[in-house]
Amino acid sequence: MQASDHSLEIAPGCLWFRDALDRAAQEQLVADIRAVIAQAPLFTPRMPRTGKPFSVRMTNCGPLGWVSDETGYRYQSFHPDTRRPWPDMPASLLALWAAHAAGAPPPEACLVNVYDAGARMGLHQDRDEDDLTAPVLSVSLGDTAVFRIGGAARTDPTRSARLSSGDVLRLGGASRLAFHGVDRVIAGSSSLLDGGGRINLTLRRVTVSA
DNA sequence: TAGTAACA
DNA sequence: CCAT
User: Fold this and answer.
1) Which residue from A4, A74, A132, A153 has the highest number of Cβ atoms inside 10 Å of its Cβ?
2) What is the rounded distance in angstroms from the CA atom of residue A69 to the CA atom of residue A103?
């Protein structure tokens, strides 16, 4: 991993570490995530109540994983289709947390979001964690995302930022409950992933530590 | 309300 | 017509 001293605060409490990961570190993460997907296949989450599918596919690693279906959003310890426990969190991700979320209790969930061509993510808050004091770390791999972030209210003004492969974003403090999403992914903007697309990793602490 | 469409 |  390559330490990035330079960070930009794009919203209060939201730190953008550009080029935090060099190419080798990105390739290591991709290899680790491929291994996770081999154990815990990508699934298509659905909206609570309506059952409308997301355009991104997901999986998780770590003791807990985020899932969504007609029942609602939740964290659970097993894959929704295979019913098997989520794979262990790779050392590369634990190192990333140590480097960019120092002082926070260990991460319990890494949500893997796979954006194929045309996939988007509507504006939302990460608020299903019991521990809302720990930051959320977001890692961008592959094609550039046109990311949007606002404030804690849905109607707050938003700004956009292009998140490139290797960027790390930390949502903490006042931005921990900021609405955010991905307007679109710029096809062909990265050579990291065979076949293109984008992988986003979000590392979260879920339970309140003693 | 992590979805979309419709509308002012 | 486009953006919100």
Assistant:
1) A4
2) 33
Q: Does strand B come within 7 Å of the CB of A54? A: yes
- CATH code for the part of the protein at A8-204: 2.60.120.590
Comparing every residue's Cα with the C1' atom of nucleotide B1, the nearest one is A124
Written in H, E and C, the secondary structure of A133-182 is: CCCEEEEEEECCEEEEECCCCCCCCCEEEEECCCCEEEECHHHCCCCEEE
Distance CA(A58)–CA(A97), nearest Å, equals: 20
Can you say how many angstroms the Cα of residue A123 is from the centroid of all Cα atoms in its chain?
14
Q: What tens digit of pLDDT does each residue of A19-74 get?
A: 999 999 999 999 999 999 999 999 999 998 888 899 999 999 999 999 999 999 99
Residue at minimum CA to C1' distance from nucleotide B2: A124
Q: Which residues contact A206 (CB under 8 A, 6 or more apart)?
A: A64, A75, A108, A109, A129, A130, A131
Q: How does DSSP classify residue A28?
A: H
Neighbours of A26 (CB within 10 A): 23
